[in-house]
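Researcher: Go.
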Amino acid sequence: MKAVSVTKSKKLLNVRNVVLMGMFGAIGAVLMLFEFPLPFIAPSFYGLDLSEIPVLVGTFAMGPVAGAVTEMVKILIKLVLKPTSTGFVGEFANFCIGCALVLPAGIIYKLRKTKQGAIIGMVTGTVCMALVGAVLNALVMLPFYSNFMPLEAILQAGAAINPAIGSVWTFVFLAVAPFNLIKGALVSLITALVYKRISIMIHG
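Model: Structure:
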């Protein structure tokens, strides 16, 4: 078992994969800097970025473990490009939510390397991302941001978009979860469109 583990580690950390994880992580970090709101879904202080696209491409190309490593590389490079403004809480949440997308997608695709397997993986990953994002926002992000903006004001911003929002949990499931479902769908769609071409370049 130990020999198998060492072999897998060497396979993950070969020169090609290390270069690819660094490259995809760097592209993701740059994409993190560009956000746009979805004001019809969530308050404007929630910005959507497409930084998971290169991470998901790398995950499909190299496997779920490499995807998680690429996600971490993305966060570290982003911190170099733009220091944290949230005491690393935002970066921690972004890492967890990103992994919630790429790990299920990568595991399913690794078990079933077909177009259908990729689609099932991305759909599963998108749902997981929405659920993990909702829970993290309820338990971590909203309590943290309430130090800078009263929680009542945050909920009122959500209620201005959807009157059914009246509590933390309705906020995360009626605003944050749909926001992440849209993000996951966009990331998955673009990944599906570009992956084959990139895969040919990676694998020759």
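Model: The chain has a mean pLDDT of 92.
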